[in-house]
Amino acid sequence: xxxxxxxxxxxxxxxxxxxxxxxxxxxxxxxxxxxxxxxxxxxxxxxxxxxxxxxxxxxxxxxxxxxxxxxxxxxxxxxxxxxxxxxxxxxxxxxxxxxxxxxxxxxxxxxxxxxxxxxxxxxxxxxxxxxxxxxxxxxxxxxxxxxxxxxxxxxxxxxxxxxxxxxxxxxxxxxxxxxxxxxxxxxxxxx
Length: 191
Hints:
Blueprint: H1 12-19, H2 25-37, H3 39-60, E1 66-68, H4 70-78, E2 83-88, E3 93-96, E4 104-110, E5 118-124, E6 130-134, E7 145-150, H5 152-157, E8 161-171, E9 174-185
Parallel strand pairs: 2-4, 3-9
Antiparallel strand pairs: 1-7, 4-7, 5-6, 5-8, 8-9
């Protein structure tokens, strides 16, 4: 049996905002009404909810690096989690660490984002070589901020080291560097 076609499918990004509780009440109500009457979109939403729930649990346990929204970060704080935060200006550096009682570690990368349509986050090695690239990350144009959550397990295992992140705007004309950030990590002193 085939599912009925949907005349106005809900974008996956909107479904993700819904499951993370980031829609305003009017949009949420309208979306729920659509989901009740649309088998295709409700099936898609349930599948996304399972994936999102797993990612959320891993992220909340500090097991993955992810770019998160400020709303997600606020829910962690409200849930009583200890969040260590670093604000890093465009072109700046920060001396950083992670304490034994920190549940979550984030960096707020500041940059002019008002004209950016798509943004990638690039982690680089000591010689500037690209180590990892996360495509199409969420960002806040209004505040000019990208919130990067790091794996607490990985950071706790690091020796003293320096790492680098870059924000890259991507459009039809290619990649454009938006900002560079340096992290000078020192392990927490052993007791």
